[in-house]
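Lab channel / #folding
Pinned by the channel admin:
"Please post every new chain as: sequence first, then the structure tokens as a reply. Keep commentary short and put observations after the output so the thread stays searchable."

First post following the new format, from NK:
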Amino acid sequence: MASAFRYTVDIGRGSARSESEAGMRAPKDISSLLTGVPRGSWVALSNDEERVVAYAAELEDALNLAREKGEPDPVVIRAPEAGNASLLL
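Reply from TO:
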């Protein structure tokens, strides 16, 4: 049976680490948070992954908007292109 690895990336430092290094956690469906977010947008979530702080077509714009709104270390994802996709973190 093949195992899947999930990586977290620290964009500011350019480092990546596996979940085993970062600490395992159960998948979390955040599809409901993406209601109203344009497909393919970069989405900045609060650090606790409970709310959308900002979104934009460009990654840097989403990061800057999140920081302007007081979220210095957002979780950044790309919204799915398909309308019926589920997104698990």
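NK: The CA atoms of residues 7 and 15 lie 10 Å apart.
TO: also worth noting, The radius of gyration is 13 Å.
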